[in-house]
């Protein structure tokens, strides 16, 4: 039992003496060694698809902190690129995508897209070979709706154009989501077979959706992905993250057969306890801005989260990813409190 990763124990429903801890976007961003590594890549996509470099980025935070899980270094927009849409990253501005191809053309590329993402599988295999057996390895993909918003709008935004498209073109959106469900399921199967022990679906832009729309474009596609992955014989537990869904998180937990639901910063103590009582492990919901700010307020919130959810299956994490300018000392302080380990900060 001691060699079984703490994260897997929590995902199987165990209440542990202390929760497992990892951070979204822990691979890179705030670490100086990441920025040095990133400077050697031709561009961000080349970085993600270089197994040696991506494995190193994945492992860097594991060397600094006694985290219970590593998450593979990749990006949610590798799937549209693999399906044939142009994707690139503008320095200081983020992702850009070319014109949305015909959906039939995207559908024709689903099978080929998995082979085009094989580098991520190699990254996972490299990390699993080096990572200690009691530390879990997480694979992930973007939720179909979130990925679709980028494909439709061509960049990150407030998603108004994508939501308008969803209302004006429901059949086209459903067809696009169906393509993304199939491509995502294949991609996650690849990751599990390469060494990922946990699979996470990041629906980063689940906010602002009416209940019926949320059911159609978030709950339905996520349930379909899990079903397809399970049909392939993959048993790795799932974490679903419908960020910004508010009260609809409970609809999500009822409709999607994931082992854990990740909660964002607005999640109440009562909501988390209800999900635990319904048999779900919960994850989150420390504010990433509070982690950056540090100080007594951060210490108090960490204690509050441990107190309100520690009596059930719980994974300590953020409600969103680590901010790039988060002081390493703040990360170390939280990790030390949760794990009980002496975490020394190095330059």
Task: Please characterize this protein's 3D structure.
The protein is of the alpha/beta class and 347 residues long. It has one domain: TIM Barrel (Alpha-Beta Barrel). 51% of the residues lie in helices and 11% in strands. It contains 17 helices and nine strands. The protein has helices spanning 6-11, 32-38, 44-48, 51-64, 78-82, 103-108, 110-116, 118-130, 144-153, 160-168, 170-194, 211-231, 249-255, 269-277, 288-293, 296-309, 328-339; strands at 69-71, 87-90, 94-97, 136-142, 198-203, 238-242, 260-262, 281-283, 314-315. A seven-stranded parallel β-sheet has the order 1-4-5-6-7-8-9. Strands 2-3 form a two-stranded antiparallel ribbon. Strand 5 (198-203), helix 12 and strand 6 (238-242) form a beta-alpha-beta unit. Helix 7 packs parallel to helix 11. The radius of gyration is 19 Å and the shape is globular. The protein starts with 5 loop residues before the first helix and ends in an 8-residue tail after the last helix. The mean pLDDT is 96.
